[in-house]
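Example 5.3 — G-protein coupled receptors family 1 profile domain-containing protein
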Amino acid sequence: MASWAAISQSYARYVGIPQFCLGILGNLMNIWIFIHELVHRRTPCTLYLLMASSTGLIQMMSGQIPRFLILGFNDDLTRVSLVWCKCRQFLIATFGGIALTFQCLATIDQFLVTSRSAHIRQFSQIKWAYRISIGVFAVWISQGIPFLVFNQIQSGTCIIGNWILNMYWSYVYFLGLLTATSITVMVTFGVLAYHNMHLLKNTARLHSADQQLTTMICMQVIIVVISIAAYGGYNVYSLATASTLKDAEQKGKDLVAFTVTSLSAFLNYGSSFYVFFASSSHFRQQTKKYFCCCWRFQQITPAEVATTHITRR
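Solution (predicted structure tokens):
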């Protein structure tokens, strides 16, 4: 029978790596699609989804690659490089929060645009979305700077060398902001947006694309909540049993639970393209439109260009 460590290692290799590759591909496709959408249809939600995909890509590169290298191959660069020890913690603390914040903002915006109140709908404006986006980056980058200062390597382990910052990371940042706050915001406004959409479904005011965008956001909320709640639950358990003596069997089980939930948490940042593609015919059409156009452009030969030029003359 395989040991718990071997199960954890196999999961990181054979589930974590494919999950990462699909997540990176999905984010790149999202970025391509939403850039084109933003040119033709400038809405706050489109901007927020573009920002969420862009920062989610960075989060996966800085967080998930080291995670499956550590768990799957026992290769931890933070043990030997102080620069990477500091930078990885900064990137995770910064871009994880930014990506989730933009997902929350996209959910809130869908509540605004589906409201029956014209006054509430006025709060969904692209000019405010740009300003809010700048503020989001400024706040999260500022809160991540202390990790560059206090992270250090002790006894071959990268740790947060300040107990106040360590408490902030464990309780305020992850359990408070990323888990409790994001779940509360996304569930609350996701339910309200879905309710608004059904109230306006038979009216002409709500555009078909907006209806499908609301459905996309609500489906993504479900994925995010499940993945965050699973990893958040493990962290609550880990903190609650930190002072408990555990035998080798229990430690092995905890390692498997940590591997599964921590890698699943990255579904927040890499699953949106597939959720959108499955839940929206409009998104599928836009995907085919932009990528088919790109493919046709690449297939144009110099001879065809010359022929077109001569014909126009």
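Remark. The CA atoms of residues 27 and 53 lie 5 Å apart.
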